[in-house]
Amino acid sequence: MTNLSHDPAAAVEQAPDPTAPTAGVGPHPQPWPDDPRLDPELLAVGDRRNVLDEFRYWRLEAIVEELDTRRHGLHVAIQNWEHDFNIGSMVRTANAFNVAGVHIVGRRRWNRRGAMVTDRYLHVHHHPDVASLVTWLDEHGVSPVGVDNLPGSVPLEQEPLPEKCCLVFGSEGPGLTEEMVAACSKLVAITQYGSTRSINAGAAAAIAMYSWALQHAR
């Protein structure tokens, strides 16, 4: 679920640093636009967040409401057994593709550092185990597709993906668990051409989401 409360950390996130490069926009010239989507605090001090220009000065809640009108049918699930540092990067990529939901399976606490606060603009769900994830996906008509270079996987670049699907990723290193593989409707792998056995989980997630977008993104 998304935390839609007013973000008191925004001021901390945007605390001025005289040594940092200028980013975003400064205070909005007065008179301010009469638009309920705009945040008076951001209008007054400027908006240094990493958001698209169309969302400058918007309240967090207003941005989420607008993104909800554009969400894709794609979901992303991540097995969180080892507090993997890649999870934050995967969540940030999920925000870039405006997925319908991110599902953290296993430990509730996950490594948010790489997310760069992008999870605030997403709907993040927690599932204590594989069974609860599968139940949620079944109830919402979403097909789980595992992404791992395991025996029996088919090349991602040659496989059509369902429009309403959940790309499922394992932890860095161990990959998907046997229970999760058994729960997936299919298993896909990213074809590699070098000597390494696998690629970084965050990079794999980005490639898989882009592959889905090539087939279905509007």
Automatic annotation (TrEMBL):
Keyword tags: Methyltransferase, Transferase
SUPFAM superfamilies for this protein: alpha/beta knot (SSF75217)
Biological processes annotated in GO: methylation; RNA processing
GO molecular function list: RNA binding; RNA methyltransferase activity
Domain of life (superkingdom): Bacteria
Region annotation (Disordered) ranges: 1-39
Transmembrane regions listed in the UniProt entry: none
Entry-linked CDD domains: SpoU-like
Residue span(s) of domain tRNA/rRNA methyltransferase SpoU type: 74-210
Keyword Methyltransferase among UniProt keywords: yes
Keyword Methyltransferase: yes
Protein name listed in UniProt: SpoU rRNA methylase family protein
Species the sequence originates in: Luteococcus japonicus LSP_Lj1
